[in-house]
Amino acid sequence: MKGGLVARDGTILHAERRPTPRAEGPDAVVAAVSAFVTALTEHHPAPGCGSASGFVPGPATGSAPRAVGLVVPGLVTPARAVFSAAFGWRDVPAEAFTDVDLPVALGHDVRAAGEAELAHGLPGDAPSGDVLFVPIGTGIAGAVALSGSLYGGASGWAGQIGHIPVRPGGLPCGCGQRGCLSAYASAGAVAARCGETSAEEVLRRVRRGDAHARQVWDDAVETLALALATYTLLLDPELVVIGGGLSLAGPALIGPLRDRLAARLAFRRPPRVRASRLGPDAGLLGAALLAWRAT
Amino acid sequence: MKGGLVARDGTILHAERRPTPRAEGPDAVVAAVSAFVTALTEHHPAPGCGSASGFVPGPATGSAPRAVGLVVPGLVTPARAVFSAAFGWRDVPAEAFTDVDLPVALGHDVRAAGEAELAHGLPGDAPSGDVLFVPIGTGIAGAVALSGSLYGGASGWAGQIGHIPVRPGGLPCGCGQRGCLSAYASAGAVAARCGETSAEEVLRRVRRGDAHARQVWDDAVETLALALATYTLLLDPELVVIGGGLSLAGPALIGPLRDRLAARLAFRRPPRVRASRLGPDAGLLGAALLAWRAT
């Protein structure tokens, strides 16, 4: 988990990481988040505080943190972390995540990252505001921006691009379905399919000419292209922004992805595709946006 | 093509069909539309006039038609029919479709059908306004309603659910891609795969126990379920309305489709799915809505 101190203008004054004790169960994760937040506020004024991508916004002057922004995966309301397959929790109230005497703003990690991309990452880049943000890390999710606003759907579950069936009946996914995009193209899946601990290692093997790693990488790019072709046909975005850890692969990912997306679309032009300018910081900045709104 | 006379309140006062001379090329289709519109206005006051799903709205009193509403497939702007793969035209101005001295409102067939469903087909049925309309006929398209308004995307091409790759590398589609939903689940594809002239004939064979027809019908339902699962994961609709000719299959389509959609979604509930209450009239009513707005 990542935490930090972010000024109102989006300047990251301090950032740090702590391991998430996922194996110890949901209560341990919630307690670890709370301890992380407390530790960061105690180190004030230099640092701020954070959580599973949570942030205390603090002014650039070094004065006290003003609020805690906390973003988590799964189904989230402003009041509760309702469900997360990754952490196994159910109905955790926002207050349970911190012991500090500050307002707490709870949000969805990927949607918050999308808010940060809209606020900080798109200077004049997509006038229609029709943009898909796809952070690719352990898993894959999407933030759907339509006409400049994030779209949550009828029950707040929109954007689950990581679990659309790109290869019906294909590889099993942790969500219980088969053939999901995440099972092929998440950084976690790319690493696991090659017996590596990171997608970076897989990419190194690809560069050394390893045939298996090449096949896994090609599968990731091809299934991403299928998912983006589907999204493009349904929603006609102006721009697709790939974020998260895998976006750090840069041209090795974005170049072939553009080519394959164009090849999948016979009767229309593809949208522009580029790597995020915020990279893995988008989640941090999104949490900070939530927190500043709560002050 | 269908044409008719529609009152302001959506009452269809007159409707008729004419063959579309598709084989004779785009100019012949445009001329046939124009002749159809003229003939209908000349038969006034009883009938109205129409086109490739075009309508002249006329008041219920039998007074003169007030405008022409014209809806066509493909890429359309209010001023021009830009492109249609079905008819092969490019950049036909709205005025070219009629010779009569009435305002002409041009629109997209499926989007107009979606407008009619929103206006006439959803009394209190989906409070969020997050609804997907899928007319299934010769082809398949979708009208994407988000928060009660139709969404067109960055360049007006949203809703192409008929061409998402449900079976990557699968059957060729008329659009130039492979594995598109339309290649399995359109009424045209269902009929063609069984050597029949209509999907109704295929369904009759299914009921008589024909194994090939059963396989083709199952393929149609399964690929529709895949496409709706994908849409649901991306956009979280409250309701899916299946329209067009295939929706007349009723429970034989909707029942299995609901079951397979639920089976495809492991970690969330499916949206409600039902047949359109307007059926194949949705396009007519949508054209009339456009025309009445032009008066």
Written description of the protein model:
The structure is a homodimer of 295-residue chains. By secondary structure, chain A is an alpha/beta fold. Chain A folds into two domains: 2-112 and 282-293, 2-Layer Sandwich (Nucleotidyltransferase, domain 5); 124-278, 2-Layer Sandwich (Nucleotidyltransferase, domain 5). Chain A has helices at 26-42, 109-121, 182-185, 187-193, 199-207, 211-235, 251-264, 282-293; strands at residues 2-6, 12-17, 49-51, 54-57, 68-72, 75-76, 80-83, 90-93, 104-108, 131-135, 143-146, 149-150, 239-243, 272-275. In chain A, strands 1, 2, 3, 4, 5 and 9 form a six-stranded mixed β-sheet that branches. The radius of gyration of chain A is 19 Å and the shape is globular. Chains A and B meet through α6 of A and α6 of B.
Give me the secondary-structure topology.
The structure is a homodimer of 295-residue chains.
Chain A: E1 2-6, E2 12-17, H1 26-42, E3 49-51, E4 54-57, E5 68-72, E6 75-76, E7 80-83, E8 90-93, E9 104-108, H2 109-121, E10 131-135, E11 143-146, E12 149-150, H3 182-185, H4 187-193, H5 199-207, H6 211-235, E13 239-243, H7 251-264, E14 272-275, H8 282-293
Parallel strand pairs in A: 1-4, 5-9, 10-13, 13-14
Antiparallel strand pairs in A: 1-2, 3-4, 4-5, 6-7, 7-8, 10-11, 11-12
